[in-house]
From TrEMBL:
It catalyses: Endohydrolysis of (1->4)-beta-D-xylosidic linkages in xylans. Keywords: Carbohydrate metabolism, Glycosidase, Hydrolase, Polysaccharide degradation, Signal, Xylan degradation. Its EC number is 3.2.1.8. The keyword Hydrolase applies. One of its GO terms (biological process) is xylan catabolic process. It comes from the Bacteria. This is Beta-xylanase. Transmembrane segments: none annotated. Belongs to the glycosyl hydrolase 10 (cellulase F) family. It is an enzyme of class 3 (hydrolase).
Length: 361
């Protein structure tokens, strides 16, 4: 089957899930596109139906990032985000906001790239940025990714424009500044590959221990979880979750997706590319989703479960297809196909939330 096929057989999909979020006492979320973006929920009644039925929390894929909300030094633009907030509220959904500070070149506002000032000036500028945005949304969002992806693969801190000008101080100051104007929202540090890279995890835990020693107001760790069918192992993921749990921090899976193809694997590099989502592959993906959610449930106590969010609604909308695989072939990383029909992967998440055995049948 292709990424847009529907009509999964009963043998392949199992019993349909009636309402995924009802199976959890914590947020079950999804990221969505807005407005003129490709695959925007605003242009798709079918996608809206899926969102309203199965998810209790929403994350904006783009419109709450830095360059969207703060395009110029003295200019803030909340129009799209406010409309998104209204959609969530009108439909009984909470919001996980993403993200106050992120290094990505295409998301850093142009004025920050040319900003001139010493360390104190940079920290003051970022304080204004964080507090203006967090104040605007105070009481309207349940949680924030306060700082996103500040740690390198292989350990150490990313040499971002923020690090170059403030060292690591910008990270903890962002949490302090956000908490000063929003007393209730959960505040997360968010990153990818911290569930798989021991050196990256080591840098993270060192940062978290420093935060604790200095009473920095962090609520939890966001594990993006852009993972693969064959990597990392369940035990490795569980051990990483436990590092946050042992520090009494919430654990939130913030950007979960599981593509069938792993573009970094030797088989893929050798040309072994799966070009059809066969029933067997769909059921293997179902089990993998179940294993991940079950590991989360088994490792993270109820009081520290910040939630589970998948990064996109339907397979064709996934960032993996446009950004990573460069449209070389289809892939099927999410819970719904291109016609917004349930895939076995949705049942896998449901089984994990319900404590059922994870199987590929």
């Amino acid at each position: 089957m292709t990424g847009t096929d529907s009509g999964w057989s009963e043998k392949t999909s199992g019993t349909e899930v009636s309402k995924l979020s009802k199976l959890a006492k914590f947020p079950v979320g999804v990221s969505v596109a807005y407005g003129n973006e490709a695959f925007s929920y605003t242009n798709s009644p079918a996608q809206q139906a899926v969102i309203k039925t199965h998810f209790s929390q929403l994350t904006a894929g783009n419109i709450m990032k830095m360059s969207y909300l703060h395009p110029a030094r003295d200019t803030y633009n909340f129009t799209q985000a406010d409309d998104f907030v209204k959609f969530a509220k009108d439909n009984g959904k909470t919001l996980h906001a993403h993200a106050l500070i992120w290094h990505a070149d295409y998301q850093v506002p142009a004025f920050m790239k040319t900003y001139q000032g010493d360390k104190a000036a940079w920290l003051a500028m970022l304080k204004t940025h964080v507090q203006t945005i967090a104040t605007h949304f105070s009481g309207k969002v349940a949680s924030w990714d306060v700082v996103n992806e500040a740690i390198n693969d292989g350990g150490g801190y990313r040499n971002s424009i923020f690090y170059q000008n403030t060292g690591t101080d910008y990270i903890e100051q962002a949490f302090i500044n956000a908490r000063a104007v929003d007393k209730k929202a959960d505040l997360y540090y968010n990153d990818y590959n911290i569930e798989a890279d021991p050196a990256k995890l080591h840098t993270l835990t060192g940062m978290l221990d420093g935060f604790k020693a200095r009473s920095v107001p962090i609520t939890g760790v966001g594990f993006q979880m852009h993972i693969y069918m064959d990597y990392p192992s369940v035990s490795t993921m569980s051990a990483a979750f436990k590092q946050a749990v042992d520090r009494n921090l919430k654990v939130k899976i913030t950007e979960l997706d599981i593509p069938i193809n792993n573009p970094f694997s030797p088989p893929y590099q050798a040309g072994d590319i799966k070009r059809e989502l066969t029933p067997a592959l769909a059921l293997a993906q179902k089990k993998r989703y179940c294993d991940v959610v079950k590991a989360y449930m088994d490792t993270v106590p109820a009081r520290l479960r910040g939630g589970v969010t998948v990064w996109g609604v339907s397979d064709p909308s996934s960032w993996l297809i446009s950004d990573l695989f460069k449209n070389a072939h289809a892939d099927w990383p999410l819970l719904f196909d291109g016609a917004y029909q349930q895939k076995p992967a949705l049942r896998g998440v449901a089984d994990g939330l319900s404590g059922k055995a994870c199987t590929n049948t």
